[in-house]
Every structure is written in structure tokens, then in C-alpha cells.
Design brief:
This protein has helices at about 30-40, 50-55, 80-90, 115-125, 165-180, and strands spanning about 20, 45, 60-65, 100-105, 130-135, 150, 155, 155-160. Helix 1 crosses helix 5. A hairpin with a 2-residue loop joins strand 6 (about 150) and strand 7 (about 155). The protein has one domain (about 20-180): Flavodoxin domain (Rossmann fold), CATH 3.40.50. The strands form two sheets. Strands 1, 2, 3, 4, 5 and 8 form a six-stranded parallel sheet that branches. The protein is built from five helices and eight strands, in the order E-H-E-H-E-H-E-H-E-E-E-E-H. The chain starts with 17 loop residues before the first strand and ends in a 5-residue tail after the last helix. By secondary structure, it is α/β, with parallel strands linked by helices. Flavin mononucleotide binds near residues 25, 70 and 105.
């Protein structure tokens, strides 16, 4: 008997590549990135440490920033995102990729500008053709105004390590489940 032709080994469907990028000044955004790492297994990388080729090889991006330039129209984060958004991102084609934003802010001291930088990231990534996912309800927050609002929702996961640090981990875990439901495959 001739040996049966070797069958190709069954292959699991390849997991999508997801990049988790952040920047931070006092560590709070890194703390929340750490909760997201714990929930997804994806290493959190400083946006300053990733090259464009790696970034555009991802199927989905999760991007997190604090807000430091209160009330500013542009460069609200006060971190490396400010350069990334205007020097690098405009030349990247993100069509077909899912992008989810998370932001850190302080509702108590900056309640008129809560997590404004998250809205800036949202608009800049959206302008490059990305499909934006992960918008969240505003109910559980105590703020006056925010440039992170889109159609009555926050444009991503918002956390407040200054006033509600005990809620961040749960919010991050819930958000990861939400992202899975929106087609981000971890
Ligand atoms: C000078 C200054 C300006 C700030 N401006 C804002 C602001 O406009 N909106 C906001 O939500 N938080 C604001 N914050 C709060 C920070 O965004 C918040 O503490 C955040 O957790 C810092 O994140 P990081 O540690 O990752 O840098 C400001 C804080 C400082 C000290």
C-alpha cells in the first residue's frame, strides 16, 4: 500500500495582533495599562518605543494617554503622544484596523476638561481610517464637561486614579470584555 498522503496539521486560526501603547508622566496611565495587560496578556509599550512598521503590522491598537494641557485644542496629553499624533500618525494608513482609546484624568480638579486628551487621540486615529471601538457610558462619573464625549458617550475607557483609583481595575476588566464583543481578538 502506498502511504496515505500526509494531511496538513490542523492549524488554529491565527490570533489577531493587538498593540497596547501608552504614555505617562506620573505613572497613572501606566497603572491602567498594567490592568489591561493583566486582562489581555498583551505587553504595554511606551508609544515612544514602538516604530511605525510594528505599529501598522497590528490588527488592533489600544492607546492610552493622560491629560495635562488643560483646555488646549491640540497636544493635550503633555506626553510623547503630542509628537506622535502630529509628526508620525498623519503618514500612517490605519484603515481596516480597530482602535480603542483609554484616558486618564481627574474629575475633581479638572472636571471641565475631564480626559480631554482621549478625545484628541480618538479624532486623530479616526482621521487615519481606523474603526474606533470601545466607547463607554458616562453614568458612573462625576464631571462637568469633557472633550472625550462623542454622541453622548465617552470615546473610550476613562479612568481617574486621583479620585476613583479603586474603580480602575474593574473598569479595565469590563472594557476588555466589551472590546472582545466588538471584535478585538486577544
Ligand atoms: C497641571 C495639571 C493639569 C491637568 N489637567 C487635566 C485636565 O485638563 N483634565 C483632566 O482630566 N486631568 C488633568 N490632570 C490630571 C491628570 O491627567 C491625572 O492626574 C492623570 O492621572 C495623570 O496621568 P499620568 O500619571 O499617566 O501622567 C492634570 C494634572 C495636572 C497636574
Amino acid at each position: 500500500f502506498a502511504p496515505a498522503p500526509a494531511k496538513a496539521a490542523p492549524r488554529a486560526a491565527p490570533l489577531n495582533a493587538v498593540g497596547l501603547y501608552y504614555s505617562t508622566t506620573t505613572g497613572n496611565t501606566e497603572t491602567v495599562a498594567g490592568y489591561l495587560t493583566a486582562a489581555t496578556g498583551i505587553e504595554a509599550v511606551d508609544i515612544d518605543s514602538v516604530d511605525d512598521e510594528t505599529l501598522t503590522s497590528m490588527d488592533a491598537l489600544i492607546c492610552g494617554a493622560p491629560t495635562w494641557h488643560t483646555g488646549a485644542d491640540e497636544q493635550r496629553s503633555g506626553t510623547a503622544w503630542d509628537e506622535f499624533l502630529y509628526d508620525r500618525l498623519p503618514s500612517l494608513d490605519l484603515s481596516g484596523k480597530k482602535v480603542a482609546i483609554f484616558g486618564l484624568g481627574d474629575q475633581g480638579s479638572y472636571g471641565d476638561n475631564f480626559c480631554d486628551a482621549a478625545g484628541e487621540l480618538y479624532d486623530c486615529f479616526s482621521a487615519q481610517g481606523a474603526t474606533m471601538v470601545g466607547l463607554t457610558a458616562t453614568d458612573d462619573y462625576d464631571y462637568s464637561d469633557s472633550k472625550a464625549l462623542r454622541d453622548g458617550k465617552f470615546c473610550g475607557l476613562l479612568c481617574d486614579e486621583d479620585n476613583e483609583y479603586d474603580k480602575s481595575e474593574g473598569r479595565a476588566n469590563d472594557w476588555v470584555e466589551q472590546l472582545k464583543g466588538e471584535g478585538v481578538a486577544f
